[in-house]
Amino acid sequence: MMPTSPSLPGGIDQEALLAQLRPLCWGAADILRAYARGEQPPHGFAAALTVADGGSGPVTAADLAVNQWLLQGLQASFPGAPWTLLSEETAAGMLQAGQPLPAEWLWLLDPLDGTKDFLLGTGEYAVHLALLQRGSPVLGVVLLPEREELWFGLLPQAGPEARAEAGEGAADLPFAGSAWRENRSGERFAPQLSARRRTQELVLVASRSHRDTRLEQLLAALQLGETRVMGSVGGKVATILRGESDLYISLSGRTAPKDWDMAAPEAVLRAAGGAFGHADGRALTYNQGDGLQAGCLIASHGPSHADLCQRAATAMGRIDPTFAI
Question: N or C: which end of the chain has fewer CB atoms below 10 A?
Fold first, then answer.
């Protein structure tokens, strides 16, 4: 399976970029697995202190260690590259409300997605890394440390202008891309999206904790099949990529997920032939100044996406007419 050639900054070779990302990601996996087990982390990072000891606690220590490892690794591997690096850990000092970052090329990093699951020891946490061009993902990486899975998704650049020209169906455009997962040996495995088509047999993947009355009402209206629970957006999307589930729905407002929660999983899923967007058909947009991904967002294996979006939009009009989907 030959990867698609996405648009990349001048002077950045695709294979060279992937070759640098692999050891950086597996290094991040080793760091997180060590913190999760209370072991000494590799690469010179300090062991976590508990909050009672006056330290930062294992989650913050893991966040900061992976953040430093990946950001410094990208900077060292590609000095002078014309991109900006933004992570969940650096956002507070870089973002100003209503002001997008002035960057054509932007990396988005979530060093630890699925904090509650990391603490609970379920193993359902992930690392997200995505490269955007003019606000649209062209490369997504989702690392699942405990499963030893490294997912890549490559998309040809399709910025806001191209998507706007496509109209309301932009979120479901069949952009030609390539997606695969690798193990530590570098073996590649293709996505295995499910063959389920009828709404009543579609499998939903949902959060254990991020559920409210509106979401329960929406799910009842959609009349789906069974529900699986999974931590991390990347973990949820990976279940779609493996064919274990068919869709994921995020329903939120002011406390919505952030850009770094969604960009990498979106890129991988769309590159695999799935779809990810708003229930009204709008594509996800990034670097808008607030970092929020609010609304009714639906990720799916693709074939039933348009119907699911239409039914969800209609249902939300009844459930909460004021909700901006």
Answer: N
Radius of gyration of the chain (CA): 19
Which burial class, exposed, middle or buried, applies to 176 when counting CB atoms under 10 A from its CB (0-12, 13-18, 19+)? exposed
Query: Is residue 144 classed as helix, strand or coil in its secondary structure?
Result: strand
Strands 105-113 and 84-87: parallel
Q: For residue 240, give every residue at least 6 positions away whose Cβ sits within 8 Å of its Cβ, in sequence order, or none.
A: 193, 194, 205, 246, 247, 248, 269, 274, 299, 300, 301
Neighbours of 236 (CB within 10 A): 27
Architecture of domain 199-319: 3-Layer(aba) Sandwich (3.40)
Q: Which residue has the tokens 């994921």?
A: 248
Strand runs (DSSP E) across the chain, as ranges?
Answer: 84-87, 105-113, 126-133, 136-144, 149-154, 178-182, 188-189, 204-206, 227-229, 247-252, 275-278, 295-300
Cα–Cα distance measured from residue 210 to residue 117, given in angstroms and rounded to the nearest whole number? 12
For the chain (length 325 residues), average pLDDT per consecutive 10?
Answer: 67 94 98 96 89 73 96 96 95 90 97 93 97 96 98 79 42 61 97 96 88 91 96 97 98 87 98 97 93 95 96 97 93
- Distance separating alpha carbons of residues 184 and 281, to the nearest angstrom: 37
Domain residue limits, the chain: 14-189, 199-319
Q: What are phi and psi of 205, to 5 degrees?
A: -110, 130
pLDDT value, residue 51: 66
The position carrying tokens 């946490």 is 125
* The model's pTM: 0.92
Q: What is the DSSP letter of 96?
A: B
Q: How far apart are CA 44 and CA 26, in angstroms?
A: 15
- Helix, strand, coil fractions of the chain, as percent rounded to 5: 40, 20, 40
Query: Which pLDDT does position 1 carry in this prediction?
Result: 43
CB 143 within 8 A of CB 29: yes
